[in-house]
Amino acid sequence: MRAHSPPRWICGAAALAAAAAWSAPASAQEAGAAQGLALNRFNPAPAGDRMLSVPSPYAASPRQDGSPTLHLMLLGDYAHNPLVLTRESTDENLGAIVGHQLFLHLNGSFTVWDRLHLNVDVPLAVLQEGDSPAEEGLSFASPSGAALGDVRVGLRLRLLGDYFDPFQLAVGGYVWLPTGDGDAGSFVGEGKVRGMPQIIAGGRAPNFVWSFAAGVDLRPAQTFAQVRQGLMFNGGAGVGVLLLPEEQLQIGPEVNVATVLEDPEARNTNVEALLGVRYRFAPAVRDLELAVGAGPGFTSGIGTPDFRAVAMLAYSPEVRREDPDRDKDGIPNTQDACPDVPGVGDPDPKRNGCPPSDRDEDGILDRVDACPDTAGVANDDPKKHGCPPPGDRDKDGITDDVDACPDEAGPANDDPKKHGCPPPPDKDGDGVIDAEDACPDIPGLRTTDPATNGCPGDRDGDTIRDDKDACPDERGKPNEDPQKNGCPVAVRVTEQEIVILQQVQFDTAKATIKKASDPLLEEVAGVLKEHPEITKIEVQGHTDTRGGRAYNVKLSQARAESVVKALVQRGIEAERLAPKGYGPDVPIADNDTDEGRQKNRRVQFKIMEKKPKQQQEAP
Question: How confident is the model at residue 66 (pLDDT cuts 50, 70, 90)?
């Protein structure tokens, strides 16, 4: 969704205009959709079709008997600025909700009976970025990270015309399964089954192909930023000019149009164009096809980018006009055992149409057979072509002539001196051979240090190996107790709290921290630096019940602020710390005893906010 001029369409402006009248801030879910939005409007044509986005009416099968044929395709689809927020009053661009979106499509097609065509498309959003724009209490959270989209299943039935006919007709359609995230704020799925029946026409003439498709996109009704989404007309058309002697290069434009059937307008209408180039590789690999395409979007509809680029690599068996006698030897291909080599008739079906000279009957003609009187096998080396293969005494699949250990079975190796030899022993199976493994009985990691090569790692960097570290993700100190070895001495991190096993000590009736608590505060600061995902900590001050409540609340607040100041001096960001004095209001022990009052005079570190797991950086 974007703006362009003239005239200038305002995308998402209605949502911002309405936001000015709201009395409270709105989240992206309140201002947008109550469910996910399948933003990408690019529907790749099935593998084996003529165009990048417009389906073809045929069921491509290179086999004359119409036996099943598989086509596979990997396609990348990049959209720039498919969803942009703009202020209506000034036409100011407030930022992209989705500025970059890159999908990879794994697409497979299967042709049955030369007429029925099945297709599955698995989309994966590998890149999603935006500016998370916010204005006047309205905010939109931009997506990030990889996400699976809605899997598409297609079916097509050819009604009229064959592959090389100038006019062909088919009916078909797609069904999208809700495999993508359908929650509010998602831009890869809508959490519901969608469908689109289609009628498809097209054809092929010398040096020219064309395709046209039209259908109704049956998607759930919803409103995103006051833009109505729902039942949509979806159409596309494309033409291609076929070049080169065997028409293996195709160049041509494609146009796709989609608009809602109820109250269509620019913001719910999508018009895009692509200029595509396809190339089918040289004869030896004619089943491989490469394509690229790029083009602009022309409207401000949701999902319409200002630029789209597509790249595709496909395995698609070529459909070719069958020559009934390719080698021109007078024997039809269906009866010719050597249809690409001129030969002679023979009552033996295995020799009919083949050249007569093959004395050892190994299927390799004498003129290229290095051993014409001894049956052999094909070989890339002309001096060995048609000769019997060398022996393999140890039965390891490596012939004796290149096996460095012909009597001991072993795997292949790039080193000729080790090729076919058994690998050195590796008892712990960690990939480091025992001769180089400093810990041969414990699986570990490969390192450049001989003293640690093959030994377990040290994730928290406290110099205590993970297999001996009771707290491998928290820095600690050595301890004779295996259950405490490598664990912090005074500070532990839980889901709700940073627990200190010692008390912060203050001067009596003051907020001055005693020097004795400096090591404890150093350790608390170190833990906060090691856990940047903890974004807000409430530093709580508590007292016992002796003295007036107002005095105790004031004292506990001052002590909490002293602790915050001490942590800031140790490099912790002030915005992560919130001091709060509770006075005697939250006891954890009996205030009627000295021991209970001692426990109640305390400082606690409560975790208030954390980054969502998908936003946390790996350590």
Answer: low
Cβ atoms within 10 Å of 368's Cβ, excluding its own:
11
Structure tokens belonging to residue 358: 């093959």
Over the stretch 21-42, which tens digit does the pLDDT of each residue have? 222 333 444 444 457 888 899 9
| CB within 8 Å of 278: residues ≥ 6 apart | 240, 249, 250, 251, 289, 290, 291
Look at residue 2 in the predicted model and tell me its pLDDT.
43
Instruction: Choose between 274 and 60: higher pLDDT.
Output: 274
**Domain definitions of the chain by residue range:** 13-18+26-315, 491-615
454-491 per-residue burial string, b: 16 or more CB within 10 A, e: under 16: bbbebebebebbbeebebbebbbeeeeeeeebbbbebb
What value does the mean pLDDT take over residues 197-217? 95
CATH superfamily of 491-615: OmpA-like domain (3.30.1330.60)
Beta-bridge partner residues of 200 = 170, 213
The reply to whether 491-615 shares the fold of 13-18+26-315 is: no
pLDDT in tens, 473-531: 777 778 777 776 767 767 888 889 988 888 899 988 898 999 988 888 998 898 898 89
Residue 267 scores a pLDDT above 90: no
Distances in Å between the Cα of 245 and the Cα atoms of 186, 208, 217, 278, 383 are: 48, 13, 40, 15, 36
Q: What is the DSSP string of 228-257?
A: EE-SEEEEEEEEEEEESTT--EEEEEEEEE
Cα distance between residue 550 and residue 22, in whole Å: 40
- CA 331 to CA 249: how far, in whole Å? 33
Amino acid identity of residue 597, one-letter, is R
- Evaluate if residue 617 carries a pLDDT over 60: no
Q: Measure the CA–CA gap between 223 and 35, rounded to whole angstroms.
A: 9
CB–CB of 511/561 below 8 Å?
yes
To which residue do tokens 């810990």 refer? 439
Other residues' Cβ atoms within 10 Å of the Cβ of residue 449: 8
What is the CATH class of 13-18+26-315?
A: mainly beta
pTM of the model: 0.51
Within 10 angstroms of residue 405's Cβ, the number of other Cβ atoms is: 16
Q: What is residue 559's three-state secondary structure?
A: helix
Instruction: Identify the residue whose tokens are 């491998």.
Output: 472
Q: What is the pLDDT of residue 46?
A: 95
DSSP letters, 13-55, are HHHHHHHTT-SS-B-HHHHS-SS--------PPPTT-SSSSSP
CA 33/CA 35 separation, integer angstroms:
5
Phi–psi pair at 153, nearest 5 degrees: -115, 130
Reduce the DSSP state of residue 207 to 3 states and report it. coil
DSSP state at residue 297: B
pLDDT per residue as tens digits for the range 115-138 = 899 999 999 999 999 998 887 777
Contact criterion met (CB below 8 Å) for 31 and 19? yes
Q: Is the pLDDT of residue 418 over 60?
A: yes
Report helix, strand and coil shares of the chain as percent, to nearest 5: 10, 30, 55
Chain centre distance of CA 18:
36
Residues 180-201: tens digit of each pLDDT: 988 888 899 888 999 999 999 9
Separation CA 134–CA 142 (nearest Å): 11
Whether 177 contacts 193, CB under 8 Å: yes
More confident residue, 164 or 66: 164
CA 575 – CA 612 distance, rounded (Å) = 18
